[in-house]
User: What shape does this take?
Amino acid sequence: MKRKLIFTLFLGAFAAHAQETKTFSFSEAITFAEQNNTAYKNAQLDANIAKETVKQTASFGLPQVSASGGYQQYLTIPGNWVNNFTKAPGSSAPDYIFIRFQQEFASSASLSVSQLLFDGTYFIGLQATRAFMGMSELLKAKSLKDLQLNVAKAYVTAVSTQKNLDVIEANIKLLEKSAFEVKEMNKEGFVESLDVDRLNFTLSNLYLQREKLQNAIIITKNALKIHMALPMSTEITLSDNLEQLETYLNVSGLDVNAFNASQRIEHKILDQTVALGLLDNKRYKAASLPSLVGFYQYQRSTLRSEFNFFQSNLTPNNEWVPSSVYGLNLRVPIFAGGLTRSKLTETNIKIEKAKNDMANFDRFAEFEFTNAKNNYAVNMKQAENQKANLALAQRIYDKSSLKYKEGVGSALEMMQAETELRAANNNYMNALYDLVISKIELQHATGTPIK
Assistant: This one.
């Protein structure tokens, strides 16, 4: 029994964890995505990598200090055959003798310092890495902007789908009540059975629509979870509705008559691409300039016939012999087989391509802005008209329902009023959805952050 109780409690805790529910407002969903979305995290990491690249490039212009040491022991000491200069004329001594000049043990230690004094490519490269860091920051900003846009649209779509489901649920309850009343009146002989069948047919269609919307809500919420980096098992509740979002997304402060494509992050990225290309051009030209490096080295070495490195009071021939040297190394490029010319040509082509991309984007951005501005104006009017139509349909339905209950109206008239009310509800929700989306797209087209 104790084991069963523990197992049951474990299953209950696991199920509760699997069904964890989180509630998000529109702004909370965007903030959560900014903190957890993997693609945006990688963009932030890329910006940090760019910062380290700048440090690495700068390090080549700072003093380079290194120390080294070595020890070796000859297993077979090398030597040379030389003329026997000790041989007396007419003697039987050999003409050549084998002499070993190398000691069996050798050790050395050195300290080297070098400093880049001049290199044109270094200074241009340093500017390029800083520009690259700026590019990484722009790409991070674009990743954030794209993330905000995706989360905003996914949130609005999920909220709109939920609202449509709520409308369907309300219509079902309303129609179920009407169907019950008509059925009772049919039993009393006040209405025909055909009226009951019509209401049941309408209800059946509404049940099917409800099922489709329930599935659509799961799909739209899962799409939002993907952008927010949430597990699929997490249940989410969206606290803002379409009416709140329409008020929250305020575009009244946007100057829709003074559009400037250069304010878009994409334009800034292309502009930075051109700047990087120009720096590359300068770097390849600077490669033909001389480079100058200064150096200094200090070394101590010793040669010994026996391993006595840890002994004291040795004879002078065992002492460490010091040496030091300093100087300059000059490198003058003369001919690189046409490589520099080819790189310059390639860079100029890339710069021209980036300029074409920028001109093309500017035209597209203006096109996108014009469409967004026009869609917003149209959708604003449509939402106002559909809201008025919904109020009118509601009044017609209320009058038709009252007439039907008083026995002076027909079931067909009431059903027609109910159908028109449902259609007006759907039209208003669709118009409100289009208005909210057009506000988001207008903010995106003007480069305004969505939050």
Summary: The longest helix spans residues 120-187. DSSP finds nine helices and eight strands in the chain. Residues 13-18 have pLDDT under 50 and may be disordered. The two ends are 54 Å apart (CA to CA).
